Amino acid sequence: MNALLTPEIEALVGTTAAYVAPEPVGRSSLRYFAGAIGDDNPIYYDDDAARAAGYDGVVAPVTLVCESNQYMTGEPDGDGYAGHSWGIEVPGTRLIRGGHEYRFHRPVYPSDVISASWVITDIAEKKSGDRAMLIVSSEARFENQDGDLLAENKETLIFLAV
Amino acid sequence: MGIFWLRTRKPSFFWRCEVALTPSLGEPVRGFERLVDPVRMVRYAAATWDWHHLHYDRDYAEGLGLVGPVVDGQMFGAFLAEHVLDHFGPKTRIESMSFRFREMVFAGETVSVAGSVVALSQDADGARIAVEQSISVGDRVCVMATTMALLAADPDG
Predict the structure, then answer these.
(1) Per the domain annotation, does B97 fall within a domain?
(2) How far apart are CA B55 and CA B30, in angstroms?
(3) Count of domains in chain B?
(4) Minimal CA–CA distance to B45: which of A67, A61, A66?
(5) Domain extents for chain A?
(6) Candidates 3.10.129.10, 3.30.9.10, 1.10.540.10, 3.30.70.141; correct CATH number of A7-25+71-161?
(7) What pLDDT shows up at residue A87?
(8) How is the beta sheet containing B140-152 ordered, strand by strand?
């Protein structure tokens, strides 16, 4: 018997969410992200260094595209969060993140205007020891204004019974 | 599945191939340590438009029974990419990355990023590598990852 996987939650498989950035990525976003993580690679701020590495010019740190919140325009909720969320509430559990699978198809440049398309691909109940957990799998595709596929992100959320 | 296939190949086949960079099977990837202090966490939160209290508000985190603000897991993806690019050079193209969270990392902790080449193949595009990586705080392994990258064949050498 499934303790967590109710018919209502199971029906969320196939739910989609889409976000379109209101402006291009811009050069400062690249430098800001690289600075935040502490990556001093000049390909993120110096066109000559980026061209020497085979790019057309400065390029985004590769994982930046997978941060969906930057494409959204909402105001923060009570937790301060204004980002991508499915709004799934599972009583008696706490939410932990399982992991990510990123695929990168094309470098992201400052001129790219990015859209993110999310879909819930699977919801399953499993056991962790003697504790039930609900595993929500979703996928995002990131494209630019020309329809070029830039990257994909498969994400796993785990609702662990407490 | 791809990684399993690659592991069955003998590395000596690849050593005869000429590429601009010559990774070898089992090669350690030069690691680094990084302090994830509150300043870095706030900068990352701002850079990714993620203002959740969990990532910078100590009172909020302690209210959840945690020892401190929790580092945003996707920051580790950025560290894993940096790790591979720094070692193999800026012409390296990361094609995919898979990482799993095992333990949380908290504000003020220093993470160690380490890894090695576990698979290697050669085709017309260049050398493709798989790097198994870990991110740890002391003895606590917090993230396990596999990153696939292309080291493009360079006609200019």
Answers:
(1) yes
(2) 28
(3) 1
(4) A67
(5) 7-25+71-161, 26-59
(6) 3.10.129.10
(7) 85
(8) A16-20, A115-128, A131-143, A149-161, A93-104, B92-101, B140-152, B126-137, B109-123, B28-36
First to last CA, chain B: 32
A149 has a pLDDT exceeding 70: yes
> B20: pLDDT confidence band, cut at 50, 70 and 90?
very low
CB-based contact B56:B39 (threshold 8 Å): no
Q: Report pTM.
A: 0.91
User: Is residue B64 in a domain?
Assistant: yes
A97 chain-B contacts, CB cut-off 8 A = 73, 101
CATH number at B80 reads: 3.10.129.10
> Virtual CA dihedral for A95, B36, B141, A91, nearest 10 degrees?
-10
Residue-wise pLDDT tens digits, B36-74: 999 999 999 999 999 999 999 999 999 999 999 999 999
Structural domain span for residue B122? 2-7+28-152
Tens of pLDDT, residue by residue over B127-148, are 999 999 999 999 999 999 999 9
Q: How far is CA B42 from the centre of its chain?
A: 21
- Domain assignment present for B16: no
* Number of Cβ atoms within 10 Å of the Cβ of A48: 11
Q: Which residues of A touch B (CB under 8 A)?
A: 29, 32-33, 35-39, 41, 43, 49-50, 52-54, 61-64, 66-67, 69-70, 72, 76, 79-83, 96-104, 107
C-alpha B157, offset from chain centre: 27
pLDDT score of A83:
81
Model confidence over A108-138: pLDDT tens digits? 999 999 999 999 999 999 998 889 999 999 9
In a domain, B79, yes or no: yes
